[in-house]
Task: structure prediction
Amino acid sequence: MARSEVLVLGAGMVGVSCAAHLQKRGISTTLLDRRGAGEETSHGNAGQIESSRMLPIAFPHSLREIARHALGLAPESNFHWSAIPGLVPFLLRYWAASGERQLIATARALRPMLAVSPEEHEALAALAGTPQLIRRKGWLKIFRTGAGLEATSGDRALADEYGVPYTILTREEVLALEPHLRPEFQHGVFWPGTGSSPNPGALTKSYAALFEKLGGVFVRGDARSLHEYEGGFRVETEAGPVDAKRVVIALGPWSMDVARKFGVRAPFAYKRGYHMHFAPAGNATLERAVLDIEGGYMIAPMDRGIRLSTGVEFADRDAPPTPVQLERTLPDARKLFPLGEALDAKPWVGSRPAIADSLPVIGPSPKNPNVICALGHAHLGFTLGPPTGRLVADLIEGKKPFVDAGPFRAERF
Result:
């Protein structure tokens, strides 16, 4: 029987970051997953380290926008009607948290974590020996209309307040940065502080390898087998039972399967997303990610090719894939950039673990202070993995957290 001080459940970006930070501080840690590291949502994201993210993605408040989404006219969204009854409590809380005042409060709570995310990633990547998997070329947001640009003025107002750099660009200035884009837009905003990875799955695996190099143990098993016993916790693995004094729940979209046992009642849903890779046609190149706000998609340069990523699909976590958003957005993406042949046999699909107020839960569970949550990061799990790991390590060590952990407490619901 193996024993550790801490057992981390989940080897996505958040889980491996927690495990690496704990092991780096000399806290013996076991990391558990049913698969290898970085093979679920952390593999399939857009690879952005979004230090320049300001306001969270909001639920629309105007009836016109709600109707647009409900009628399937918004390329950035899709939903399964069969999932709606179970989603109603979440959607009501999401709508309530999407008012202007609430969105600003959420942005302020996240800012200290987002501000350090590139440096935290670079520090772990340097220790892991994979600095080439982090790039600092910023990202572009393009707008087809002046109204689209104006709709994001709140982001820029907050950026001005916090000193986050950005530049509003004309179409010609955007094309000077990315000469192989086509002029299918009117305006752009360049955010130079945003980092990225050309291979998010490989970066996640490199942090897991660092964890093992530091003396941590990775095992495969079913996190749902976790149970309390006198003196700690036990989980069943392929290598036999593992005991620990403390547990970190970082299971991404599977987190609530375990967290509910310990009193976590967060309004939780799955924001599914899809991607496919395409070869660039001819000699076309793309230096940085480009987000087409009104088009509802992103293209990003990856080691495998150009990754086309979609917005949000509300569906049951394990429902069959319905990649209609890729079908809707691919024609516009081809107009914007010369995409060639598809490099994947079928689209990838993954689930982003989302909480209705757009803040993760990071901290002790309500029923047991030895169960630490690190879940519900939604669109920012890849970005916030390393700072979440640092915060979790602070909490477990009993140190003053490097950021205020209050906004992330589980008891807020």
User: Anything to note?
Assistant: The domain at 1-59+97-134+195-267+356-413 is CATH 3.50.50.60 (FAD/NAD(P)-binding domain).
